[in-house]
């Protein structure tokens, strides 16, 4: 992978946004503006040496949509996913066809993954379980 300078990087991201697939456009209509349980997504974002289709930074999650050409590039996709995981991201992949024919199912999988990765004050992501109740008040 070759490095790109800031100008070229910006041009590539803008081009990727302009040339979005039908599946990317459709999914974006449901992810933008915090529509999915208040999670903020960005599209076509540089993450390391790659451009991620969709990124939720607070959940450290990347969503990739794959067309038929990815069936021939499985090794590249696996290496890319491994690199992104080393950076601390969880990568979810969906086929374009799944987004186009079962958008609600894709959104359900995303919602469940997001809610399972973001800690809440009463249910942290730590294995210790919920936080203990405060002591001293009202007792």
How would you characterize this protein structure?
The chain has helices at 6-18, 22-31, 74-86, 96-101, 103-117; strands at residues 42-47, 50-56, 61-66, 90-95. The protein is of the alpha+beta class. It has one domain (6-117): Endonuclease, Chain A (3-Layer(aba) Sandwich). Helix 3 links the parallel strand 3 and strand 4 (90-95). It is globular, with a radius of gyration of 18 Å.
Quick structural gist:
With 139 residues, the protein is an alpha+beta fold.
Q: Find the count of extended strands (DSSP E, 2+ residues).
A: 4
Mean pLDDT: 84
Helical residues, percent: 40-55%
Largest sheet properties: 4 strands, mixed
- Quaternary structure type: single chain
* Shape call: globular
- Order of strands, main sheet, comes to 1-2-3-4
**What's the number of structural domains?**
1
Uncertain stretches of 5 or more adjacent residues:
122-134
Query: Roughly what fraction of the amino acids lie in strands?
Result: 15-25%
CA-to-CA gap between the ends? 62 Å
Q: Order of helices and strands, N to C?
A: HHEEEHEHH
CATH fold call: Endonuclease, Chain A
If you compute it from the alpha carbons, what radius of gyration comes out, rounded to the nearest whole angstrom? 18 Å
CATH uppermost class: Alpha Beta
Structural class: alpha+beta
Number of DSSP helical runs: 5
Features:
139 residues, alpha+beta, Endonuclease, Chain A, 4-stranded mixed β-sheet, 5 helices, globular
Q: Could you outline the blueprint of secondary structure elements for this entry?
A:
Blueprint: H1 6-18, H2 22-31, E1 42-47, E2 50-56, E3 61-66, H3 74-86, E4 90-95, H4 96-101, H5 103-117
Parallel strand pairs: 3-4
Antiparallel strand pairs: 1-2, 2-3
């Amino acid at each position: 992978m070759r490095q790109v300078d800031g100008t070229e990087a910006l041009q590539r991201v803008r081009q990727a946004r302009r040339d979005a697939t039908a599946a990317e456009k459709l999914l974006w209509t449901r992810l933008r503006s915090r529509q999915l349980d208040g999670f903020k997504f960005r599209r076509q974002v540089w993450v390391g040496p790659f451009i991620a289709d969709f990124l939720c930074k607070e959940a450290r999650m990347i969503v990739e949509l794959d067309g038929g050409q990815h069936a021939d590039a499985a090794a590249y996709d696996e290496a890319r996913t491994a690199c992104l995981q080393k950076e601390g991201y969880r990568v979810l992949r969906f086929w374009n066809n799944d987004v186009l024919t079962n958008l609600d199912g894709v959104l359900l999988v995303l919602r469940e993954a997001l809610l399972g990765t973001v800690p809440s004050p009463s249910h942290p992501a730590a294995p210790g379980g919920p936080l203990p109740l405060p002591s001293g008040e009202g007792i």
